[in-house]
Backbone:
């Protein structure tokens, strides 16, 4: 039976087994590029925490990690482009091989901002691993080195991603209609 327009239940887009396989492949790719050197992972809170937890357990090189949180203003169809750090890193990244771990690359505002800030702190190398890439909404270019899945312009939840803080605990990545879409 086709879902009615008012059906707001999450629908699976990416199953947990698919995600697990792809995260393992991304870890292998990261290891190859690192040539056995240690890696310092920076998790962008909160959405990327589940991806980080799975990625670190797949990596077979020495790993350290840190966390950063940002807030963006004007999120929605017309982003204002303002991003602000609300929790900074605990440690310096100077001279380290850093990989920024992000759940979703959407407009690119968050990663464009963070990439520039972190690059100015003189890491040895700086790469970006994004589980999901939604290129349809890109406003700012972002040099993503590792992308799990390219997805269509739909609002997704689960595997760390939320809608109004809900659904982060869903093991699959699912699509939920936003209020604008259900109108
Ligand atoms: C989401 C997501 C990314 C960002 C991507 O974070 O986790 O960090 O938006 O969007 P952009 O490419 O358009 O900047 P959010 O601000 O919702 O915070 P959260 O991770 O705590 O849910
Ligand atoms: C942020 C975000 N959070 C959850 N789901 C999406 O599709 C998103 N795009 N940008």
Residues:
């Amino acid at each position: 039976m086709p879902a009615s327009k008012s059906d707001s239940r999450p629908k699976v887009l990416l199953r947990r087994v698919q995600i697990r396989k792809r995260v393992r492949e991304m870890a292998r790719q990261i290891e190859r590029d690192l040539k056995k050197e240690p890696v310092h992972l920076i998790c962008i809170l909160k959405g990327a925490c589940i991806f980080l937890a799975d990625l670190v357990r797949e990596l077979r090189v020495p790993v350290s990690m840190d966390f950063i949180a940002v807030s963006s203003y004007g999120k929605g169809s017309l982003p204002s482009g303002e991003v602000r750090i609300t929790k900074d890193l605990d440690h310096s990244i100077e001279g380290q091989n850093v990989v920024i771990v992000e759940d979703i690359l959407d407009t690119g505002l968050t990663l464009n901002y963070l990439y520039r800030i972190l690059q100015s702190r003189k890491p040895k190398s700086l790469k970006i691993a994004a589980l999901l890439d939604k290129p349809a909404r890109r406003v700012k270019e972002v040099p993503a080195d590792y992308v799990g899945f390219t997805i269509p312009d739909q609002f997704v939840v689960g595997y760390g991603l939320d809608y109004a803080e809900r659904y982060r605990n869903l093991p699959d990545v699912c699509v939920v209609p936003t209020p604008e879409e259900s109108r």
